[in-house]
Amino acid sequence: MTMQEQLRVLIQRNCAKLVEQIVDVGRLLAQIEESGAVSEDLIAEAQGITHQMKGAAGSIGFGEMGAAATVLDENLKDLRKRAGAISPDQLQATRRLFVTLQSIGERTTPEMSTLYNADLSQLAR
Q: What is the DSSP string of the chain?
């Protein structure tokens, strides 16, 4: 297997992992909304996932997904600082940011990575 083929396999795995992480964040946000009470633990868990996503997406060439994950990550960080003083409007704003990330994830394919067709011989220089 060539280095380019190995990179593509890595990109495919990471793309699938990012989509799984979006599902996980959605599940956590749904739990927060369903409970009617803001759980700092659930927000922290969701924020931990978005933090991982922003780094992984950017590193593997999914800039749009990384940017959306970064915005949601910052929003969740802000919610954590507020600890129990979170209004329904703030949760709704978080949900909108999540829907944006989810939409990007649904249309993202491994081939959309900036590294998928990269000329590795040029990158090594």
A: --HHHHHHHHHHHHHHHHHHHHHHHHHHHHHHHHHSS--HHHHHHHHHHHHHHHHHHHHTT-HHHHHHHHHHHHHHHHHHHHTT---HHHHHHHHHHHHHHHHHHHH--GGGSTTTT--HHHHT-
